[in-house]
């Protein structure tokens, strides 16, 4: 695709009139605004806020899961000690019942049963002590668990608020973008084919800014001063055709 005249008056393209220059500048202003809106849409701070809460929530869930595993482990230990202690207690009660019933025969048998009761009772007390120790270990875990649950509720609320803020920000920028996009076709269609082709090609190459106003002898695209010869050409029909020697943009002097 030809990009129209490189620079200077080579006689191959007509010089755009003032209306065309104003139209291409208006199109460029709109395109810059569209670019900014798309950038805003793609980098909403509200989206980062949601991601931040999500990260906090997932860290919290991991903490909760670890704590839950520890709680389950200790609860299992507690129940095992409790079960063994209860079994020892039941065994003692059974032996005592036998003793009371007189079913135990000899003195030797009775002595052996008394010894077993003593041993079982000792074992039962040990088991109950272990159970208490485990229950003491469970206490701070239950407290930490309650604290985590409270933090989780707060974070869930934060997540909901952040998601609502994101949704309304996204809706607002989408509406603004849609209305700016609707402005584009009539502006672009108003340009003559040559100028539009040149504009499109240059805008794609130069980050969306194809046309530079000349203000006080300076190209507004690259901020560099133009030569006396360039300024002279601009004054004599070069506006809209001449390209900046430094940045390649179409120079427009509207005085
Ligand atoms: Zn320039």
Please indicate the percent range of residues in DSSP E strands (runs of 2 or more): under 5%
CATH architectural arrangement of the largest domain: Orthogonal Bundle
Query: Order of SSEs, N→C?
Result: HHHHEEHE
Number of strands: 3
**Oligomeric state of the chains in view:** single chain
Question: Please, what is the average pLDDT?
Answer: 91
First-to-last CA distance: 31 Å
Q: Determine and state the CATH class of the largest domain.
A: Mainly Alpha
Structural class: mainly alpha
Give the low-confidence spans: 1-12
Provide the spatial order of strands within the biggest beta sheet.
Answer: 2-1-3
Shape: rod-shaped
Bound molecules: zinc ion
When the domains are counted, the total is 2
Largest sheet: 3 strands, mixed
Please state the CA-atom Rg, rounded to the nearest Å.
43 Å
Helix content: over 70%
- Please work out how many helical segments DSSP would assign: 5
The third-level CATH topology of the largest domain is: Helix Hairpins
Any overview of this molecule?
The protein has 255 residues and is mainly α. The chain is 74% helix and 4% strand. The protein is built from five helices and three strands, in the order ααααββαβ. Helix 1 (18-42) packs antiparallel against helix 3 and helix 2 (45-101) packs antiparallel against helix 3 (107-189). The protein starts with 17 loop residues before the first helix and ends with a strand. Bound molecules: zinc ion. Zinc ion binds at residues 212, 219, 221-222, 224, 244, 246-247, 249.
């Amino acid at each position: 695709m030809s990009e129209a005249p490189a620079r200077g008056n080579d006689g191959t393209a007509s010089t755009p009139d003032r209306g065309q220059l104003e139209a291409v500048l208006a199109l460029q202003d709109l395109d810059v605004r569209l670019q900014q809106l798309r950038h805003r849409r793609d980098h909403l701070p509200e989206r980062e806020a949601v991601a931040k809460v999500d990260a906090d929530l997932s860290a919290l869930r991991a903490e909760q899961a670890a704590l839950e595993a520890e709680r389950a482990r200790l609860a299992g230990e507690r129940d095992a000690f409790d079960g063994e202690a209860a079994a020892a207690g039941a065994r003692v009660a059974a032996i005592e019942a036998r003793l009371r019933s007189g079913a135990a025969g000899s003195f030797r048998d009775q002595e052996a049963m008394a010894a077993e009761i003593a041993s079982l009772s000792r074992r039962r007390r040990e088991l109950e002590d272990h159970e208490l120790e485990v229950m003491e270990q469970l206490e701070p875990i239950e407290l930490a668990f309650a604290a985590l649950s409270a933090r989780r509720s707060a974070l869930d609320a934060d997540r909901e608020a952040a998601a609502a803020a994101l949704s309304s920000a996204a809706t607002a920028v989408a509406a603004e973008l849609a209305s700016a996009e609707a402005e584009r076709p009539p502006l672009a269609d108003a340009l003559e084919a040559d100028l539009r082709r040149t504009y499109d090609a240059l805008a794609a190459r130069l980050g969306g800014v194809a046309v530079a106003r000349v203000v006080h002898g300076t190209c507004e695209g690259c901020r560099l001063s133009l030569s006396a010869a360039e300024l002279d050409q601009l004054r004599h029909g070069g506006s809209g055709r001449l390209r900046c020697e430094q940045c390649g943009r179409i120079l427009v002097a509207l005085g």
